Amino acid sequence: MRTKTFQMKWLTVAALLVALGLGCGEKGPEAISRLNPRSASYLEGVPVPEGFKLVGRESTDYESGGQRSALHVYEGWADPAAIRSFYREQMPMMGWGKVSDQSVEGVATLRFEKSNEACTVDIKPTGLLNRTKIHVTVSPFNRARTTTEPPRRSVP
What we know:
Number of strands: 7
Structural class: alpha+beta
Order of helices and strands: HEEEHEEEE
Largest sheet: 7 strands, antiparallel
Number of domains: 1
């Protein structure tokens, strides 16, 4: 019994060392792995990195009269910087124009537009070894505009 307890302690220590080692290393642009899109997306025209799954209990979508609204949450294992690069690359390939790209307190937010829709992508690390949530919001807006025209601001 004593040997078994000793082995379990060493296995726990070894697992912790491996987990800590995963966080070490270079984090420059060359260290970001390239992600590929899923073969079938959950929302038409909005890519999702391969390996990410829809979190159904946190997601909603609605389509009527040729307009759609959606809030989809995806969860998977990938470096947030790699996910940000994925959306910077993939969204224009799907016809979306980038309007903004920012990072605040570890959450990256990218906004894209095309014809009469806006798509906001929030990339949120969960704090669990590269486990990341992606919140994708698609919503219509009333008039078409070019992607170089700034978004309209509401006047209070």
